[in-house]
């Protein structure tokens, strides 16, 4: 049931990037929100763009974690792309439109109608390689997203919790139905057979000019980095302009820019801009 079209506000090139969905309860516990942020940051540092629904609780925490990484984050919303709901996430939504992306299948001006939110879940599930459920009650809308992900052959992951916590029961239900039990982001990366940058694995910076540098599923050469440096020039530049100047695709550029950020050669600025850092 694909949408006829998608409205996009923000960095359209992120739609070409590999994604992982992180969803969960709007009434998440403090621990659940911490887990969502930590998993999103770790998966984002591994090169996976975080996709979620801009709801309170787990969704918002996942977006915040994604925004801390070069891979960034995408919100699929149940209103028009020109409206931000809920109001408590308005500031986060503006940051997403600036440094990530907001997408919607609903016409501009569409208000927050209850039936639109379960409907947008199929887009979250369809965009991502897999869906991680952090916390969920047995009747949570997050379970709809997980079911839709499984229906289209995507991986489903769930974080277990206390048997005494209502917010863990939905995750336990998913695990009984075949979802992968995960305790760390590494569990997800291994299940997806995802090649992550070696510098992220070690938590250390790569040496500048170290020849061939492992990046997001590709080998990045000094020649690639030189092309990017030349395309950047001396002024803050957006990804589309760098792509035009370098002849590289946005997806390839993100794979090259991540290790360059780790090396301290490039800085990501607000507004989806990149700045060359002169030694």
Runs with pLDDT <50, length 5+?
198-219
Strand content: 15-25%
Task: Please summarize the sheet with the most strands.
Answer: 8 strands, mixed
Q: What is the overall shape? A: globular
Q: Which H/E pattern describes the elements? A: EEHEHEHEHEHEHEHHEEHEHHEE
Structural class estimated from helices and strands: alpha/beta
- The number of helical segments is 11
Report the span from N to C terminus. Answer: 51 Å
Radius of gyration: 19 Å
How many strand units? 13
Average pLDDT for all residues: 86
> What order do the strands of the largest sheet run in, or round the barrel if closed?
1-5-4-3-2-6-7-8
Percent helix, as a range, is 40-55%
Could you please describe the fold and organization of this structure?
α5 links the parallel β6 and β7. This protein has eleven helices and 13 strands. Strands 1-5-4-3-2-6-7-8 form an eight-stranded mixed beta sheet, sandwiched between helices. A three-stranded antiparallel beta sheet has the order 11-13-12. The protein is globular.
How does the SSE layout of this entry go?
Blueprint (H helix, E strand, L loop, with lengths): L6 E4 L8 E5 L6 H16 L3 E4 L5 H10 L5 E4 L13 H10 L1 E4 L11 H12 L2 E4 L7 H11 L3 E4 L7 H11 L3 E2 L3 H7 L6 H5 L10 E2 L4 E2 L1 H11 L4 E2 H8 L3 H14 L2 E4 L3 E4 L3
Parallel strand pairs: 2-3, 2-6, 3-4, 4-5, 6-7, 7-8
Antiparallel strand pairs: 1-5, 9-10, 11-13, 12-13
């Amino acid at each position: 049931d694909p949408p006829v079209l998608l409205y996009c506000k923000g960095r359209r090139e992120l739609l070409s990037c590999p994604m992982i969905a992180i969803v969960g309860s709007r009434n998440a516990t403090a621990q659940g929100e911490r887990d969502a942020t930590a998993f999103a940051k770790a998966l984002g540092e591994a090169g996976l763009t975080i996709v979620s629904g801009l709801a309170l609780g787990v969704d918002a925490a996942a977006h915040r974690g994604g925004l801390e990484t070069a891979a960034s984050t995408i919100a699929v919303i149940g209103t028009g792309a020109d409206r931000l709901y809920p109001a408590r996430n308005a500031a986060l939504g503006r940051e997403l439109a600036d440094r990530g992306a907001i997408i919607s299948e609903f016409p501009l001006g569409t208000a927050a109608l209850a039936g639109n939110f379960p409907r947008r879940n199929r887009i979250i599930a369809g965009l991502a390689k897999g869906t991680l459920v952090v916390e969920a009650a047995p009747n949570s809308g997050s379970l709809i997203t997980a079911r839709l992900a499984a229906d289209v052959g995507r991986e489903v992951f769930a974080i277990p919790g206390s048997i005494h916590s209502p917010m863990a029961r939905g995750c336990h239900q998913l695990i009984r139905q075949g979802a992968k039990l995960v305790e760390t982001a590494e569990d997800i990366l291994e299940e997806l057979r995802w090649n992550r940058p070696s510098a992220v694995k070690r938590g250390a910076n790569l040496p500048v000019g170290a020849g061939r540098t492992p990046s997001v599923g590709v080998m990045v050469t000094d020649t690639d980095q030189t092309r990017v440096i030349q395309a950047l020039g001396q002024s803050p530049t957006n990804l589309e302009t760098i792509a035009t100047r370098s002849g590289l695709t946005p997806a390839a550029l993100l794979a090259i820019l991540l290790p360059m950020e780790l090396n301290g050669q490039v800085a990501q600025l607000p507004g989806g801009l990149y700045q060359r850092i002169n030694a």
